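Extended Data, panel c. Modelled sequence:
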Amino acid sequence: MHVVEGISDRVIALDHGTKIAEGSFEEVATSAQVVEAYLGTGGMARK
């Protein structure tokens, strides 16, 4: 992810082929919908 952050002005996140977020790396990486899609409910707090 650090590579993407360092070389991209805009990022698009997909969930099963559907765009769920678009914007700066920070906007996309902190989007609740992106966190849910990529990490699941509760994110890293899950056991």
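Residues 32-39 form the longest helix (8 residues). This feature is highlighted in the accompanying rendering.
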